[in-house]
Amino acid sequence: NYSSKLNSDAVIGSIGNPNEMFITYSSNPESTDDSEEGKTPVDKVIVFTYKTTVDKVDETGAALNGAQFVLYKEVPAGTANAQTGADIKNAYSSDTVKNAAAALNNTKSYVTIVKSTDSTSSKFVFKGIDDGTYVLVETAVPAGYNAWTAKEFTVSATHTEEADNPALTELKGTDPFAEADSWDGSVEMTKKNGTKYTTASGEMYTEIENKSGSTLPSTGGIGTTIFYVLGGLLVAGAGIVLVARKKAAE
Question: Is the distance from CB of 213 to CB of 146 less than 8 angstroms?
Fold first, then answer.
């Protein structure tokens, strides 16, 4: 058995990352040269990896800077460095981010795949994706805009496993990457601003929109508490005024 780990130089898409293995052996242990050596048939495997590309835009489709993202992958419980969805959400101090991360299941386990801290760009590329279930969480929101509510999405790939030269035959993602059946790089999409985007091999693409305007305070946050207190004071004040008027009328 042989195992290896892809690094940052891994090739994205249908070319993949080939690895060949064979064993040489001698049929005559007393041989002093290689003349009687044999070799097993070559076993070739290709490891495929993919990427997701996200363009952050406003309601008009214009590029929008100021966001940050974290991509999580669902893993079996007990996986090294994994956290439950509840633990991840509790680690965020912002109620806005906690609500935006609602797609993280509280009882399931996740590991961090990519963390983006660059808020000066409107384009985010997440490499090293394989089959599985993911959640993309917007952890920093452009000023004056509402957070994008995260969605759980799955990535599924089909390839020939028993062929002498394994090949990737299909790559699909679910919403917000549902249109990206793009393993061969031939998918052309129309962006919100009307321009075209053609995916590369192994790339799934989407636009994530932030809407401008104010957001009501999150459920359970300090903002809602303030509203409840103010509302209660207004109701009590109205009652006092009514009682005072009634007494004045008497």
Answer: yes
Contacts of 47 (CB under 8 A, 6+ apart): 6, 10, 16, 17, 19
Which two three-digit tokens encode residue 52? 């997701």
Q: How many angstroms separate the CA atoms of 166 and 176, rounded?
A: 29
Residue type, 1: N
Mind listing the pLDDT tens digit for each residue in 89-136? 999 988 889 989 999 999 999 999 988 878 888 999 999 899 999 999
Question: How far is the C-alpha of 158 from the C-alpha of 179, rounded, in Å?
Answer: 16
Rounded Cα distance, 235 and 167, in Å:
69
pLDDT tens-digit series, residues 4-36: 788 889 998 888 898 888 888 877 777 777 667
Q: Which residues of 163-196 are buried (b: 16+ CB within 10 A; e: fewer)?
A: eeebebeebbbbebbebbebbbeebeeeeeeeee
End-to-end CA distance of the chain: 95
Q: Which residues contact 87 (CB under 8 A, 6 or more apart)?
A: none
Q: Give residue 16's Cα distance to chain centre.
A: 21
> Is the separation of the CB atoms in 17 and 11 below 8 Å?
yes
Q: What radius of gyration do the chain's Cα atoms show?
A: 27
CA atoms within 13 A on the CB side of 93: 0
DSSP letter, residue 241: H
Contact 46, 17 (CB under 8 A): yes
